[in-house]
TrEMBL record:
Signal peptide (residue range): none
Organism from which the protein derives: Methanocella paludicola (strain DSM 17711 / JCM 13418 / NBRC 101707 / SANAE)
Cofactor(s) this protein cannot do without: FAD
Organism lineage string: Archaea, Methanobacteriati, Methanobacteriota, Stenosarchaea group, Methanomicrobia
Keywords (A to Z) from UniProt: Iron, Iron-sulfur, Metal-binding, Oxidoreductase
Name of this protein: Formate dehydrogenase beta chain
């Protein structure tokens, strides 16, 4: 029996899952057990599309289909949480779902739950350690220019021991230090470099290969049990014969901790580099105004942000932001900063999906970091409410509309 706080090695008992899955296939086996035991109605995760650079979200209800999701995709830059809420749970709010989450996905789960967008009681979160992801276009460029390989011949990629490693169809292996790549402008997304949630302990269990040593390396998953729900799921999977386990050795636990700490220090380094480059005070403001002046008001940042949930977006209010103006007045971005920055989880979607390549994530994360220092609120780690959480929008708008206006102060004629 495992309990919350335990650290174990786990692997799939089924040979096909073990062979096709990453590090022994424990995650795939757990997801299959969740479906077969009817603990969940569906599993929401990511599968490889046309190649290793194409990550596709998928909702699976048939346990047999889960094998297609086996393996990791470091060139997939999706945030599954917002898609889950918008595309699936909006139509089926009572559906019980198993979800594979990175650190930013898990943080988004909590922040969206606080805003009434997701019911965590109906979700089982299987967390996967994440050292960062690489944009598909950047990955192809990096493999061609730095590795000297045709990106279309690469059949597998991984980030391990501080290196980005690729394998080609003819069996070639090649790895280059991530530090070297990133100092030369390649490598992970900027938000991933700044991230300090490498082991997603907000999930029910956290899985990865860090700390798997000896003959178990590559064949077994390191699992940390992070909640009572996670312990229950694991114990049922063990009893059903879906996975095999053994206690993680002390040396493996020590190595895992060292890897995580090294990643956290790297996150501090990149935060200092990105944030200090902005200057101070007015310099920061002018730099942000200059970059955001490229905005074409496409609303990709709003539509894909897990913190944006308002029924009526204030950026669409004519008395706040002039309609039809391109680029919009800086008030458009100021409203975003005010509404989002206290709870920004640094997922990077606002920057990733911006067609004008505005560094939205950097600005939002920088403000969030300052606010965290002032008020102590850390987003996405538990159900503690954010500093600016005052009311639920629908109820408040109904109350205000009943008075004849949705403006509290009579400052507009």
């Amino acid at each position: 029996m495992v309990a919350k706080g335990d650290m174990i090695y786990a692997y799939a008992k089924d040979k096909e899952t073990r062979d096709k899955g990453e590090t022994g296939g424990a995650v795939t086996a757990l997801l299959r057990h969740l479906l077969e035991s009817k603990t969940v109605d569906a599993v929401y995760t990511v599968k490889k599309g046309v190649d290793i650079y194409d990550a596709q979200p998928v909702l699976i209800t048939d346990p047999k289909d889960l094998i297609q999701t086996a393996g990791s995709i470091h060139c997939g830059t999706l945030l599954v949480t917002k898609q889950l809420a918008k595309c699936i749970l909006k139509e089926a709010p009572e559906m019980k779902v198993g979800v594979v989450v990175k650190g930013c996905d898990a943080m988004a789960m909590y922040e969206m739950a606080k805003r009434g967008q997701i019911n965590l009681d109906n979700v089982v979160m299987i967390g996967v350690n994440c050292g960062g992801t690489v944009k598909p276009v950047m990955a192809r460029k990096m493999i061609k220019e730095k590795f000297g390989l045709d990106p279309d011949t690469v059949v597998k990629e991984e980030i391990d021991k501080g290196q980005f490693i690729v394998k080609t169809a003819d069996g070639q292996h090649k790895g280059i230090s991530m530090d070297e790549l990133e100092e030369q402008g390649y490598g992970r997304r900027s938000n991933c470099r700044r991230c300090k949630v490498k082991v997603p302990r907000q999930a029910d269990i956290a899985c990865g290969n860090w700390g798997v040593i000896g003959d178990k390396a590559g064949n077994t998953t390191f699992v940390e049990v992070c909640s009572e729900k996670g312990a229950l799921v694991l114990n049922k999977a063990i009893e059903a014969g879906a996975i095999g386990t053994e206690p993680a050795p002390a040396k493996g636990i020590e190595i895992r901790g060292k890897v995580e700490n090294a990643m956290l220090k790297l996150g501090d380094k990149w935060r200092e580099k990105y944030f200090n480059s902005m200057g101070t005070g007015t310099e920061k403001l002018e730099a942000i105004k200059k970059d955001t002046s490229k905005c074409i008001r496409c609303y990709a940042c709003v539509e894909n942000c897990p913190i944006c949930y308002c029924n009526e977006c204030s950026t669409k209010k004519a008395w706040l932001v002039q309609p039809g103006q391109i680029p919009p007045d800086f008030m458009f971005h100021m409203i975003r900063f005010v509404h989002v920055s206290d709870s920004c989880i640094n997922c990077g979607q606002c920057e990733e999906l911006c067609p004008m390549e505005i560094e939205n994530s950097k600005y939002m994360h920088m403000i969030q970091s300052d606010l965290q220092g002032m008020f102590g609120y850390v987003p996405g780690v538990n159900m503690t409410m954010p500093v600016l959480a005052l009311t639920k929008e629908p109820e408040e708008r109904e109350r205000l509309h009943s008075t004849g206006t949705d403006q509290i102060f009579k400052i507009f004629k």
